[in-house]
Amino acid sequence: MAEKIIELRDIKKSYGSVYALGGVNLGVEKGEVVGLLGDNGAGKSTLIKILAGAVRPTSGEILVRGRAVAGWNAARSREAGIETVFQDRALAVQQSIVRNIFMGNEIANRFGFLDTDKEIEEAHRLMREIGFTSKVFSPKSIVGQLSGGERQGVAIARAIYKEADLIILDEPTTALSLTETNKVFHFVRQVKASGRSIVFIGHNIHHVYDIADRFVVIDRGKVALEADRKEIKTADHLVRYMEHIAHPEKSAEPDPKPAKVRKKGTV
Amino acid sequence: MPETKLKGSVASGSAESWLHPQDNIWRRFVMNNRAALGSLAVFVVMILIFIAANPTVFTSWTVYSSVLTTLPVAIFLVVPLVFIVTVGEIDLSFPATMGVAAWAFALVVKAGYDPSLGFIAALIVGSVLGGFVGSLVVYGNLSSLIATLGMNFVLRGVILIFTEGKSIALVSLNDNWFFKLFSSDFYGLPIQIFWAVIFVVFCAYLYSRHRFGVHVHIVGDNPDSAGQMGINVKAVRVKAFIFMGIGAAIAGVFSTMINFTWWPSSGDGYLLPVLASVFVGGTPTWGGIGTVAGGAIGALTVSFIQTGIVGAGLSGFYVQFFNGLIIILSLLGHRWNQVRYR
């Protein structure tokens, strides 16, 4: 079994009396692409915010490369080699592209003064790498001037700068044009080819089916289905499973049956 | 699939191809310093009007020299306040912090110790008070507007309770090396202005080229994003308040040395002019952006208004009116000059 970059054990998260997550187990192995699916409000976003350290779980254990970590937060998550492209992109729109790419990860000397030349050079390289080659913008341009797709590009550039072991993409194609969406998928395949892991959260089941090695379906705060690609023959098969999870009384459980199906409320 | 490696897989053009066709150095300088240059324009126009109104007074050096003695005190307050406003907070407690820190300085000097020790004491008191006010706002989750307003009264009250309104005279300062270094004349100019310029240049670097400064920008711009990217948002905010406390302490010591006396009201008169200077200087109220150089120019403008109005031959009754007019006009100017990105 390959090494697990991160493993969540029995993670629960409640906001007041409302449970967003009711005991989730999820591990990400080196080099695999995990497709995370689920309806709105199922707990996907809470789950990835916990992976990114932006939200603290109410209870449960987090292991990084097999070791339990205490005091998990966003800084620890990034130190552990996990980079996240949040659904809202987490940009500071009044700042320049460079400042956003190096947000919380500035290139500085030991007195804390920045090496801005190096940062701009690196920003040039990253922007070329993700195919962000408009002549109108430079690394010093303000992010507020950019379009949605270009902003997504900045968020992705930030995630790949540190050569992270795991990149989490939370609905990266929402509100993007077809060309921009294709760019994002091109990027995902590049990352996959370079042997790094991805957790991909998507609404579009066909998109997720195309790139994921393993599917995890979250339903009402629990893992409802966990299946390898081998076990799910077609995207349609996955769609029928999603329907069955959402409305078990209306649709029969499709065949063939993956090993790790968990019926609602039985986790 | 062709995409086997990530680096350099999309080869398209050199770094130069990135530059905007019109991106020459002057254009960039103007675009990067719009707010500060706008403040400078306000100042220049104001001085030109004063010169036109009374050429004899405003072409002699004396009117400028008197402003240059008191201006540094304001600058040590305005520049840290630019950091506070950029981080998305406000501080109304700096006048009392300045008073308490200067009080510590006065007590140490009065007790017969070297003024340099008094200065260190003032810096410690200033940063502790700044840290306390900041923690109250950040960890108490209070509105900085109200909490710092309250702290201003509390600290001023503490001064009045303990001193019963008595001032401290510091005649022994006169021959000291510390006094000469920080509060004498240097080639005909008040030496404070050199320290103020050094402070402004250092802070401008701290503001835009240091991790602390860029975190202040990002936290003020979007605290949620900053937190998601691993920046300790609360620590950055508290640090900004500590920095304000340090600035207030320096201002307090300079002001005390100019007057050879510490008054229980020390710092009180600075509240409104300093606040006005920050915004006249081109730092907007919404946080995330600002300008240190603009703030310093704003302080220059605001401290010149009073001298200028009287020097131009108008009676002192006009001072407040023109003070307000210049503030409003420069805000309108900055509104037109700056775009807010969301």
Please provide a written account of the structure.
- The complex is a heterodimer of chains A (267) and B (342).
- With 267 residues, chain A is α/β, with parallel strands linked by helices.
- Chain A is built from 8 helices and 11 strands.
- Chain A has helices at residues 44-51, 74-79, 97-101, 116-129, 148-161, 178-193, 205-211, 235-246; strands spanning 4-15, 18-29, 33-38, 59-64, 67-68, 82-85, 166-170, 197-201, 214-219, 222-228, 260-261.
- In chain A, the strands form 2 sheets. Chain A has a 7-stranded mixed sheet with strand order 6-7-8-3-9-10-11, sandwiched between helices. A 4-stranded antiparallel sheet of chain A has the order 2-1-4-5, with helices on one face.
- In chain A, strand 1 and strand 2 (18-29) form a beta hairpin.
- In chain A, helix 4 (116-129) crosses helix 5.
- Chain A is globular, with a radius of gyration of 19 Å.
- The two termini of chain A are 23 Å apart.
- Mean pLDDT of chain A is 86; it is low at 263-267.
- In chain B, a hairpin with a 2-residue loop joins strand 2 (185-186) and strand 3.
- In chain B, the strands form 2 sheets. A two-stranded antiparallel ribbon of chain B has the order 1-4.
- Chain B has helices at 25-32, 34-53, 55-58, 62-86, 94-110, 115-139, 144-163, 177-182, 192-209, 211-221, 223-228, 233-259, 271-280, 292-311, 319-337; strands at residues 168-169, 185-186, 189-190, 261-262.
- Chain B is globular and about 55 Å long.
- With 342 residues, chain B is mostly helical.
